[in-house]
Structures are given as C-alpha cells and as structure tokens.
Amino acid sequence: MKFGFGLVLTLVALIGASGVLFARDYSAPGVKVANPWTRATPAGATTAVAYLKITNTGSTPLRLVGGSTPVAQRVEIHSMSMEGGVMRMRPVPGLDIAPGATVELKAGGLHLMLIGLNRQLTQQEQVPLTLIFAGGRQLAIELHVEGMGGGMGSHGEP
Length: 158
Ligand SMILES: [Cu+2]
Description:
This protein is mainly beta. The chain contains 1 helix and 11 strands, in the order H-E-E-E-E-E-E-E-E-E-E-E.
C-alpha cells in the first residue's frame, strides 16, 4: 500500500517536471526500450511513424524483426536515406543490436512504420504495440502519442 502510493507520487512529479515529454521505459530479460512515441494523425491518414530506443541488455545478439499493433494492419521497420537530394525510405528485414548496444529509431533515420491505420491517433493517448524479435521473443510496449507537430523533423509524408 505504501509502495503504491509512493509510486503514484513519483510519477506525478516526473510528469510535472518534464512537461509534455513523457519518457517511459519498458524492459524484459535482455532488452530495454526507452521512450516509444508516435504522432497524432490527421483524419483519413493510413500510416503513422513510431520512434524509440532499444538497448540489448543481454549477452547475445538481439534482432528486431517487426511488430504488431491493434491500430494498424502491419508494422514494418524502415530506414531513411538521402538519395539525390530526396529522402527515401525502405523496409529493412531486421535490426541487429549487439550485446550492450543501443539503437535509436528517430526522425530522419530508422523508424517503425504503422501501415493500414484503422483509426485516428489522438494526442496524449497510449497506443499498444508489440515488438517482435528473432526467435519469437516479444515485448509489449505503449507508444505515447505526441501532437501532430511534435518531435523533431518530419517523415516526408504528404
Ligand atoms: Cu517509413
């Protein structure tokens, strides 16, 4: 009882101190995910982009191969690169994270692509997403939905 109460107070203090930034960590044996987020989508949008930081806290290689979410038909891992002055993105089959290494999926680089959205994403909600790793391991996380102009940079969506 005492522990629960203290936890609530700490969470409120963290939100108060950080303003709109809502940092959250998720972990399972061998893996840690920090600050997963996405943006609110306009009506009729069919895709959304998600970002997060993954750390391999284990002693064996970790490979992210995809994800799933109730709000979209599928989740792909994409990379972005400049080609002839144009930002292009393409699916990557997997993301290898060496033991002890951290890979950051961020604006302008690697990201998760939610394809075939079945509803609008609204600011401040939490969207469940399951990360899938090679070997069948999974980690359930929640994407925090920032405002439409939130975060840094854009994804090049119309
Ligand atoms: Cu993409």
